[in-house]
Sequence to fold (247 residues):
Amino acid sequence: MDLGIAGRTAAVAAASAGLGLGAAKALAADGVRVAICGRDPQRLAAAAAQIDADVLTITADMSDPSSGRSFVEQAIAGLGSVDILVTNAGGPPPGIFSNTEMEAFQMAFDMNCKAMIEMCRVAIPPMRERGWGRVCAITSVGVKQPIPFLLASSVARAGLTSFLKITAREVAADGVTVNSAQPGTHWTARVSKMMNQEDAGKSNPMGICGDSDDFGAAVAFLCSEQAKFITGTGLLIDGGQATGLLD
Ligand code: NAD
Fold:
């Protein structure tokens, strides 16, 4: 399907590997000019080499929320505009109530909520002025079904999801959509640190883990022309992992 976004511009955060890279690849494959960020210039260059297009690489660390702002500002300067924003960052370390210190909540909030809000604050106003924009936040299935061993992560992402939902309604009439893509268990470096692939697959109704490229294709759809009437939603991409009845 032609997504109708060829020639558009995108900033995809934390895209030197994993789900962010999957999203950047899918957008570039649809003719979008892409800027990606990550912490390490060499890893970013290696990621850019996996994308079949010219890619603007920007070094930025999302654990400092002001880097979210600076990433989007640099992407706008380099690409001329940002029509599509995909927010993303690394994930907080595992922890439960009895072993999660307040600092861990603050770090999760900074990286997985505040940095995303900073990105939106730079990207959305010019999208509204131009009458077209797409924001897709990579969050987690934990927003729909909190993950007990990822307490700080689940708390931070729930806050971000509230921000996205409220903002989506405020900017809807200006042609800007604001959604999230909620991964279940996709086989990436992060997941490989927490579980083995066989066990991760077994715990999913499909018996497998998700794939970054499939995930990226779903993100690209949410950012497409055809998705113009989808806003304020969180799309689970989880192979049926979440068990709740209501989305
Ligand atoms: P990953 O660790 O495999 O890849 C994350 C990428 O972001 C890497 O390129 C890494 O270098 C970069 N990165 C990490 N910290 C960064 C920072 N502070 N600033 C800039 N870049 C940074 O992770 P992933 O599996 O691709 O997950 C992406 C996001 O989705 C994470 O927040 C993760 O917690 C969340 N998530 C992933 C899954 C999954 O199944 N993979 C499930 C639920 C939620």
